[in-house]
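Progress narrative, Year 2. Work on DUF4817 domain-containing protein from Trichonephila clavipes advanced from sequence curation to structure prediction during this period.
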Amino acid sequence: NPQVYVETPLHPEKLTVWCALWAGGIIGPYFFKHYEGHKVTVNGDRYRAMITNFFIPELNNHDVQKLWFQQDGATCHTARTPIDLLKDTFGDHLISRFAPVN
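Result:
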């Protein structure tokens, strides 16, 4: 019927979700989204905010003295401010680009 049409988006909705996996369980999930619920691109500032406001407070609820933190080389993960924060938090127990493993 030429009078009936169905609108479909050109691209599907996308959402970035972060979580941490370890022997003691899962921390997360954390959904990167705008305050109005819209999707956002994860950049160094948003990643650092997630670490500061979500991840580190969650870590404080667990015994993580011997925990190692590993991440991939995504641009937001290797930006200067998140890397500096992670180095301060995990010291030599950080496995990431620009963070030497000892």
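Helices lie at 44-59, 75-78, 80-90. The first helix runs from residue 44 to 59.
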